[in-house]
Amino acid sequence: MPQQNQRPRKSHGKVPPCNDPWVAENSHICRYCAAVVIDPQSSDDRGSRATKFKYGRVKHARRAAVKGCKLFHDVIDKDGRRDIDGEVYFGFSFTPWNHSKFDLSYCRVEYLPSSQSLPFKVDIAERWSIAVSPGDPAAAYISTPSPNYNINSTRAYEFAKQCLKDCESHQDCHPLTPAKGGPRRLIEVGSDDEQLKLREDFPENPKYAALSYCWGGEQNYKTNPGNIMSYQQKLNLPSTAKTILDAISVTRKIGLQYLWVDALCIIQDSPDDMVAELARMPDIYKAAYVTIVALTSDKSSTGFLEPRTPPKPMYRLPYQCPTGELGSVLLFDPYIPGINSDYTIKTRAWTFQEEILSTRTLEFGNDMLWWSCNHGIKSDGGKYHDFQTKNRKLSGDPETVMKEWKSIVRTYTARKMTNKNDRFNAIASIAAEVAQILERSTPGVSTRYAAGLWDTDLSAQLLWHTQRYSKLQNTPASYRAPSWSWGSVDDNITFWDNNGSLHEDPRWQIDLENEKLSYGQAKSGFLALVGQVKKAVWAKGREHLQDENFPNAGLGNLASTMPDFLQDHKTDSLDLKVWCLVLAQKYQFHAKYGSSSERVAGLILRPLGTTGQTSPANMDSVRTVVSSASEVDEDGVYRDKSFQEPILRHTDMTFDANPGDEVAIPACESFLFQRVGFFEMHHDMDVVRGFDEYASDSDIAEEKEKWKWFKDCPRQSVYIV
């Protein structure tokens, strides 16, 4: 147990010197708190991870507070214990990863009441973190450097340059050379603003920085066909381009000559240039020597190098070094926002792929500079000053990349986007990287991307659904993907935990809006598969399914449903006739009851064209089905003949078409569907002796036999657009 009879050594109120003017200005120390010196040598707490010093009685702390000591004012004022008497202790915790008794990480002040009726200790102050200013004598013993609130300082840039140098030796951070082609244009930063220019004729594979930031509105200085020639002579940026100007300053100070900024290095009003540069985006960020991330800037006019205001309070106390020299340590709020704190840039969809793809990043936060590479993350101060958990978002392992993709989709779809039609474009660079990972595992085999889903894992990825507690969005105003793709909705997406068996792989086709953007927006598409399908009634409110033969028997206790989007009020207030398609099932064993249960999951489908008419919006998808079905294999046999049969059966048409012919087919209820939701249900809860553990008697159990819903349901061909 820590000893409690040690008294801190006295320095008679001598204030130790401070070699950091910024720390001296923004921290509190006075003759009252300076009268107590932290001296780890005076402790006998051998083998303990903490030590404790008795300061004196509460009345002594109260007197110091009255005389103006901010530290003791906070101690006495905590929880209103101004009038309680007792003894005050300073407690210190040693840094867990360091076995030195001189390396302290936390401090808190404890109060031991003098009353015999209160024999327990009571904390009267919040716990503070302990850090030290670089260059202070105590820095030789305290391992945690102070947070750097002066983000635009020599200390910050020395940290950045050292990280870049160290990263050169990280095997998992190479190579940086672009695989297909780096940026077409770069800003040459020069040594001052008079030398700024937009360049296309730069050396091969130059070291350049890339900027990740929030536009926050229109940028009038962006490159367009009318100003690109003048920008190549001299780039005059207005003071309102503060974030870009700050990035130029950082680029110079870390010793680089080139900077890539999307607003300036892409011709914004040229569709052809936009498409070409979007295709380059994966390599632009992967090959950047470093990506500068403007964490604190929510728009391009605010910048990110402005002085930070340190948290209050921040105290400085004397520290007795083993050499006899007097140093000092800082006590500050233990909560330091992390690298993923609630910065605006971390909520925007477009910046997500920059975060994922960048090999190295320098992130300018509220209270420190963050470094991140494939090796890990660290900061120039605070508790993250040394490398922490690896920060790589894509492992490069084909065995795990599909799991990583689902995690990426969850995070990405929770982010905000101004133009909803960019839903695919803003994640296209990550998709391109995933494709490369998959293709490396199967050389020569092309990986197919189905509007946000991957062909190699399509059955599982079709089981996406909206987050249960997220606010549903309206149906998108314009088409950008078939309904079976998560890209067709504007909501937060997650995936079913499909540890069970999946049904056979479906057939599909996607027609892209722009063939040059392989991972971009779709203009049409279809999905064809065979599975168990059953009609149901989706009750108003869209929370319960009902069997159409037993409309009063709700399946709310068995089926969990999630709508894909918010219908209009009139539709939501009515029961909706739907079809339920099973895609996966899994079994669970209940040890308590000695029984097992089956869970099934699938899609809720709405039939299209029930009047025998095909709406114009779906005609391309219908024609695509027939066109694809008409392709022949090497033996001259229709490769996808199974596609034709249900079309013919449900439309009473004769099929007489050559491969590739377009044939318009009237839609009917059992042929063409739109996905409108997701369901999951207990399919077979009474598998032991015909008795349901949730039923009160055998009669109810027998009645619930009817809810083995898909047991005898035939398999059918289904087409979803």
From TrEMBL:
Heterokaryon incompatibility domain ranges (all copies): 208-354
Top-level lineage group: Eukaryota
Entry-linked Pfam families: HET
Name of the protein in question: Heterokaryon incompatibility domain-containing protein
Species name: Periconia digitata
